[in-house]
Amino acid sequence: MEEQDLLDRATRGDRTALSQLLQQHYEFVYKYMLKITLNPALAEDLTQDTMIRCIEKIKLYNAKSKFSSWLITIATRLMIDQARRRKREKKWLEQQQAGALRQMKWHAESQNEAWPDVLNTLAELPEESRIPVILKHYYGYTYEEIGQILAIAEGTVKSRVHNALKQLRKELV
């Protein structure tokens, strides 16, 4: 069946025609999202979200552009919205962490406890570096155990710990 015929039927509410259209374009949208995000899981999620949005908005399709272009527009807008959301969430999380750090410092000072400079510097490390260092040097986990906890390769753990310690030394000297 021709794409235009499927589109006409889908915009009139034919779910079978819409299903065929989405099946025909799914891989196209997924490959586009994969090239844009460079993240297979995110590309899959955004492709599925695109298909859902298409199902919800198919009656608004006006055939002024190709159906594939309409899908790409939806996918791109969803990806931009996702990036904005992640940026806001990251900013919020950073603010929460900064507040928690200030609270921990205040608590330590109010109890007349020392607040080592290393904790300030450790707090400035990115989470992906800070967690392995804490697990290794504060809790004594092996590189293998840390790799299992974080679901990353043992070599990656070693590299992150090494680079984080190098950065800590540089900051503390």
From TrEMBL:
Keywords: Sigma factor, Transcription, Transcription regulation
Coiled coil segments of this chain: none
InterPro entries in the cross-refs: RNA_pol_sigma-70-like, RNA_pol_sigma-70_dom, RNA_pol_sigma70_r2, RNA_pol_sigma70_r4_t2, RNA_pol_sigma_r2, RNA_pol_sigma_r3/r4-like, WH-like_DNA-bd_sf
Domain RNA polymerase sigma-70 region: 21-88
GO molecular function: DNA binding; sigma factor activity
One Gene Ontology term from the biological process aspect of the record: DNA-templated transcription initiation
Domain RNA polymerase sigma factor 70 region 4 type positions: 118-168
Record-stated family: Belongs to the sigma-70 factor family. ECF subfamily.
Protein name: RNA polymerase sigma factor SigY
Lineage: Bacteria, Bacillati, Bacillota, Bacilli, Bacillales
Gene expressing this chain: sigY
